[in-house]
Fold this protein.
Amino acid sequence: MNLVILLFVLAAVLVGSLLYFLRAKDRPAIAEKVEAHSLDGQAADAAGDGDLQFLGDAIFSEGDWDFIRGEDSPLLTELFREERRGLAARWLNHSAERIRTIREDHVRNSRFSQDLDVLAEVKLLGLFVYLITLCRCMSLVVRVAEPTAPRTLALHFEKMAGRLALQQEAVVSHVPAEELRRSHP
Amino acid sequence: MNRVNTRARLANPDALKAYDDLWQRTLGKIPGDLNRMIYLASTRDYNSGRYHHAGLEATFGYEAVKQALETAHQDIFWKLTRSSLEQLVGELEVYIRSSGESPEELLRTWRTLQPYRVAIPLEVDAMGAQLLLSNLKLGLEVLQKRRSQQAARP
């Protein structure tokens, strides 16, 4: 099991490094757009409870796991495992669905773009594939390992998913508004 | 509660005043966030999902009070959802102590009927709601196990 996790982490590091170097080339243009969107996001968060990133952290919480183990009850430990596996499975389905929706929106919007940035599109595609693969790997880890085992992956996933949404918005932001409206029936 | 966040969501000035009044006169005097969430859920009609508070409505009007109650309910829900399991067990203990009911009976009823399910606000993320419900279920089992251990001791 440890070997599978190790291999996965190595693959993740490789893909992460690749994406980092690809992104470094056109960082200024994307970074400006991403910053503008981040500020919009902060305003949205201030207006409501839009920040759900803590969910992954909470579901795979080591503190909760330690607390339950401290109670020294096999029944409680088993119930905790069962509950957290169920929650993790739902969270992963929900997250994968979120990624698919972003991808579908992006594909739909890209059809109307006049000047597609091929490099940015390839990077986004890489990120989509990476995140969906990450979801599948976490699903596997959730089934076979301790409830908190995918915690690091879950935190990394949330970070990357947040970046994906921002990058996707930045890439399609130059699509004329009229075309975007037309693409959403 | 995050006042800046609340101010941004409560655009209506009367709703903000009603929210402050609700905290000063009512919620601030209720011990524990779980208690507060149960209280706020009790101001909501089971069928329509609309919030009502006759006293506040007489001063601030129905719409402002509805917004204030809904916002307070969501604020407390998120605070509880972000709590650790240990903190939630503490909230359950406070709730049991302040209920005036026998802890054994309350635990039995809550574990069987799960009445806390109806205390969740309507417009919240489903995953957040599932996390809180799951943690409450675990918290009740922790308390039940502690009570059983206490009872077994000579």
The interface with chain B takes residues 43, 45-49, 52, 54-55, 58-59, 61, 63-64, 67-68, 71, 73, 75-76, 79-80, 83-84, 86-87, 90-91, 94 of chain A (CB under 8 Å). Chain A is about 85% helix and 0% strand. The first helix of chain A runs from residue 2 to 25. Chain A has one domain: 2-37+63-183.
